[in-house]
# Entry
Amino acid sequence: MRQIAFSFLTICTLLVAQNPVQRVQDVRTIYVDSFGTGEGADVIRSKVITRLVKAGRFEVLQSPEKADAILTGASSVTKTSHYSATNGENGSASGGTSYHATAGIQLINRDQKILWADDASNRLFAHSASSSLADKIVKDLLKATQQPNKK
# Structure
């Protein structure tokens, strides 16, 4: 009887390994791959990993081999400096630096089928552009996992 149970479990494991997840709702394990070579991409990737782990919806893996899906894409943070001189009575000037983070991301299964994709950018007036972007990516991915399968 034990041999039959062991054989059944082995066959089920092989079938699961051969049949990749076909819906974003069924993803349980995830690997976060590169977010490109843009300025700040490694920071954005790291923050996405942190937020995924904290969310607890997925088991985040260190290597892609056993993952149901891989989250990948391209991202960057751009810096804009602005300066404004005024001709007022006191002759004061103002200026500053702002940061804008953007990403194009995809969640891909083992068959290279795109299960989910999104474009994202940080919130206006966010304290940290990369943190705001990571929050949005994870929030949108979690929302996609809760939506019923659309046919």
